[in-house]
Structure formats: structure tokens, C-alpha cells
């Protein structure tokens, strides 16, 4: 009976336990305090897997671009739920090993997304891709701070969930 109650409270975590392996090139590796893995002790995602998590598109201005831009990706909160993240912080790491910490307070459905499209196009490494954590800067003045801008890591390829 307790297992049924737990299953009712955690449907995403149970679904996450069955995380499929990527069939294409992995563009994101999540590790650390996660319960769902598909390659060793990591959860690896190709582009199609990220798209299957449910895309959202936000329009916002950024300090790095001119005028309003559209970004499409998966909410960071949904991605972390999918892998059963249980830590209080994620360490987001770029291809060049630049890293930032993003606290769990930011892991909200209307918060940052892991963007894989910019203005409808895939992003090359030269254009801050393949993944860029984008906050909906224009929707909330709290997202227009140096701290938040510093968390907006581009060329993202790894996330480590930690305490």
C-alpha cells in the first residue's frame, strides 16, 4: 500500500527509472545525485531525447544579443525531475570547462530552460551551442541581475547534481 502511495506522489521519478539510452550523439551528460541513469552512472541525452521532454519557447532580450530573441528548450526543472535529481545545487559545465552553480531555488517550471534552438535554429559551438541555459529575463526583474546572467552558461555539455 505504501508503494502505491509513493508511486502516486512521484510519477516522474518512476518514469525516469526507465530512461532510454541515446540513439544519437549525446550532447548533455547529467551525473551526481540522480536516480535515473542510462549509461553507467550518468544520464546522457541526445537532441531527440531533450525534445521529447517537452519543449517550451520563450521570447526575451539578453545582454549578449540584439533585440528580442526566441529560445526553445526543456525547462531545467523538468530535466532534473526526469533524472531524479535530489541535490540542492547543480554544477553546470561548458565544453571549455567553465562552470557555474545553479541553486535548486531556480529549478522552477517557469524558470530557466536548457535551450537547444535559438530563433528556431540549432546552435553551433561557435554560436553558444549546442546548449545554452536561458532564463526568461524579461518576465521577471529578479532575472535581470549579474548573478543570474552568470548562471546563463552557454556551450553547456555537463550537469553535476550535488548537495
Automatic annotation (TrEMBL):
Residues 1-20 form the signal peptide. SUPFAM superfamilies: Oxidoreductase molybdopterin-binding domain. Keywords: Signal. It comes from the Bacteria. This is Oxidoreductase.
Amino acid at each position: 500500500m505504501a508503494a502505491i502511495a509513493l508511486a502516486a506522489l512521484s510519477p516522474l521519478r518512476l518514469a525516469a527509472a526507465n530512461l532510454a539510452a541515446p540513439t544519437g550523439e549525446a550532447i548533455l551528460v547529467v551525473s551526481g545525485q540522480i536516480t535515473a541513469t542510462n549509461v553507467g552512472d550518468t544520464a546522457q541525452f541526445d537532441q531527440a531525447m531533450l525534445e521529447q521532454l517537452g519543449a517550451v519557447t520563450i521570447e526575451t532580450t539578453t545582454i549578449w544579443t540584439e533585440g528580442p530573441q526566441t529560445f526553445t528548450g526543456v525547462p531545467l526543472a523538468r530535466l532534473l525531475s526526469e533524472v531524479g535529481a535530489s541535490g540542492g545545487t547543480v554544477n553546470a559545465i561548458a565544453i571549455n570547462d567553465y562552470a557555474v552553480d545553479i541553486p535548486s531555488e531556480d529549478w522552477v517550471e517557469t524558470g530557466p530552460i536548457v535551450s537547444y534552438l535559438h530563433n528556431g535554429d540549432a546552435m553551433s559551438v561557435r554560436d553558444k551551442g549546442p546548449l545554452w541555459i536561458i532564463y526568461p529575463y524579461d518576465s521577471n526583474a529578479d532575472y535581470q541581475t549579474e548573478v543570474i546572467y552568470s548562471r546563463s552558461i552557454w556551450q553547456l555539455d555537463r550537469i553535476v547534481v550535488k548537495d
